[in-house]
Amino acid sequence: MAKDEEPSLEERIARLRLPKDDEVFGVVEKALGSGHMKVRCEDGNSRTCRIPGKLRKRVWIRGDDVVIVDPWEVQSDEKGDIVYRYSQTQLGWLKKEGIWEEK
Fold first, then answer.
1. How far apart are the C-alpha atoms of 79 and 97, rounded to whole Å?
2. 24: left (phi over 0), alpha (psi -120 to 50) or beta
3. What residues does the S1-like domain cover (predicted)?
4. For 57-90, what is each residue's pLDDT tens digit?
5. What's the pLDDT at 2?
6. CA trace torsion 40, 26, 39, 83 (10° rounding)
7. What's the whole-model pTM score?
8. In the chain, where are the structural domains located?
9. Which CATH architecture has domain 17-97?
10. In three state form, how does the secondary structure of the chain look?
């Protein structure tokens, strides 16, 4: 890529974590305690999600945070795991690119 060329949308998106395969966007509605959250997902389901141990110690998740949810294979409409949380800067970028729209 030349110095004065604008990077393509695909190149800019490649730097940011997006949902893969069965994963969906979600918004944390409330904390239930013990590392569990109630999340309203983009596919219309409201899931009880847990924060896996590797995220629990590194990331602080609060209400109204935008997250990526990986639904469980069993009870996929009711339960899932939170695999990523977006910062406010990342969320602003997603809105600007038209990937995330507030509902």
1. 29
2. beta
3. 14-87
4. 888 999 999 999 999 999 989 999 999 999 999 9
5. 55
6. 160
7. 0.83
8. 17-97
9. Beta Barrel (2.40)
10. CCCCCCCCHHHHHCCCCCCCCCCEEEEEEEEEECCEEEEEECCCCEEEEECCHHHHCCCCCCCCCEEEEEECCCCCCCEEEEEEECCHHHHHHHHHHCCCCCC
